[in-house]
Design brief:
The chain has three helices and nine strands. By secondary structure, the chain is an alpha+beta fold. A hairpin with a 2-residue loop joins strand 1 and strand 2.
């Protein structure tokens, strides 16, 4: 009888861990929600900053890419500058002139090979018009006079350009501002483009 009462009076052992089966308290839930909200706010601010930076750098990257393309076209035109002797030019193939206060760089160059494999002459002019660097090129012509008098096609290369400066390399003198009376083709040209915000981009190019 005593053994029976002893087994009835004995209480079961508590489960291991002491709190197994219990849920989260209200305080714990509130802390978890607060942490999740804080992480969400930090992530949103980081994403917003990333988008703003991308929107700010996007136009600048496009302008720099356009500048590089413009300089690349200048480099090709100057590399194909006509030989004054072979083309019977009246003067040097590259001249810098100022018309109505606007500087322009004129290049007489050999055109790309025609279907028959020959090349003709083109007059190419770089100048700044209405805040943009433009390239004007005549159709290929058989003579320098025809190339200089032909109606050119105009292509806008770079927007946001305030001005262009050009200097040429002269042996024993270094970089100098060219004059319309120069009779010899320079070995190199320095072109500086000033953007609307005041920043400048400089490029040195070889002639011929």
């Amino acid at each position: 009888m005593a053994d029976r009462f002893a087994s009835v009076a004995r209480t079961p052992d508590p489960p291991a861990g002491g709190r197994r089966g219990r849920g989260f308290t209200l305080v714990e839930l509130l802390v978890a929600i607060w942490i999740m909200a804080l992480v969400a706010v930090i992530s949103w601010r980081g994403l917003s900053s990333l988008v703003a930076t991308r929107e700010r750098l996007g136009p600048e990257a496009d302008e720099v890419r356009a500048m590089l393309i413009g300089f690349g076209q200048m480099e090709r035109d100057l590399a194909q500058a006509a030989n004054p002797v072979l083309a019977s030019l009246p003067g040097p193939p590259m001249r810098v002139q100022t018309v109505d206060g606007t500087l322009s760089m004129q290049i007489l160059r050999f055109s790309e090979p025609l279907p028959d494999g020959s090349s003709e002459l083109q007059q190419v002019t770089y100048t700044v018009v209405d805040g943009a660097l433009v390239r004007q090129s005549s159709p290929p012509q058989r003579s320098a006079q025809d190339a200089m008098s032909a109606a050119p096609a105009t292509v806008q290369l770079v927007k946001g350009v305030a001005s262009m400066q050009v200097r040429v390399w002269r042996v024993n003198d270094g970089w100098v501002v060219p004059t319309p009376t120069d009779v010899a083709a320079p070995p190199g040209v320095e072109v500086v483009l000033t953007r609307g915000d005041g920043t400048t981009l400089r490029r040195v190019l070889l002639v011929g």
